[in-house]
Design a protein that fits this description.
About 40% of the residues are buried. It is built from eight helices and five strands; from the N terminus they run αββαβααββαααα. Strands 3-2-1-4-5 form a five-stranded mixed β-sheet. It is of the alpha/beta class and about 210 residues long.
């Protein structure tokens, strides 16, 4: 069955209400055992159509890379921010996710006047916003943000793998796969791991995002 692309219907409706710079925001890496949580914010050019935008998890790595290059080339504005494992452990993953999202949004130049978020509203954000359940499958700007965040983080995890190949970060991207968990049991945590994410109920670890 064909996978439907995300649409601009919601963004266009918001523009008709008088907003001109509508940003989509998404994150990746929230459920990982290692690596940063990464958030991206993207303002798509209203007149530059990028076909095939959809939830990054529904795309092949090659398709994500191709769309990533189109997004950063054609978007009116885009930004990526990350929160590293040490900070995640200090403030917890929920707050770290919101922090990464806020950083990405506030770094956009010029700033957006409306924000569409995949999931929940972002606290302490003084910009009009709307959260969308499964927004990365419904909204083109959020789908674009999901792709930028995913490609950025995947590339970073591959760099970490080159520095320390024991954990297979090039394959698992920090998620709790059986081989990753076994490597932690064998070698212990590395500096890339989140110490607050303990090895419990690992047989039920969610492998989202692979």
């Amino acid at each position: 069955m064909a996978r439907t692309s995300a649409r601009r219907t919601i963004e266009n409706a918001i523009r008709r209400r008088g907003f001109s710079r509508v940003a989509g925001v998404d994150e990746v890496g929230r459920g990982c055992l290692a690596g940063p949580v990464v958030a991206a914010a993207v303002v798509l050019d209203p007149v530059q159509h990028i076909p095939g935008l959809r939830d990054s998890k529904l795309l092949t790595p090659a398709a994500r890379e191709s769309l990533y290059m189109q997004i950063i080339g054609y978007a009116s504005a885009w930004n990526v921010s990350e929160i590293e494992p040490g900070e995640i452990d200090r403030i917890n993953i929920r707050e770290a996710t919101f922090a990464a999202m806020r950083k990405s949004i506030l770094a956009l130049q010029p700033p957006p006047d409306f924000v569409l978020i995949d999931g929940s509203d972002i606290p302490s954000l003084a910009i009009a916003q709307r959260s969308l359940i499964k927004g990365d499958r419904r909204c083109a700007a959020i789908a674009a943000a999901s792709i930028v965040a995913k490609v950025t983080r995947d590339r970073y995890m591959c760099l970490l793998h080159k520095q320390d190949s024991r954990y297979g970060f090039d394959r698992n991207k920090g998620y709790g796969t059986p081989t990753h968990v076994e490597a932690i049991r064998r070698f212990g945590y590395s500096s890339a791991h989140r110490r607050s994410f303990r090895l419990k109920a690992l047989s039920d670890t969610i492998l989202e995002g692979l």
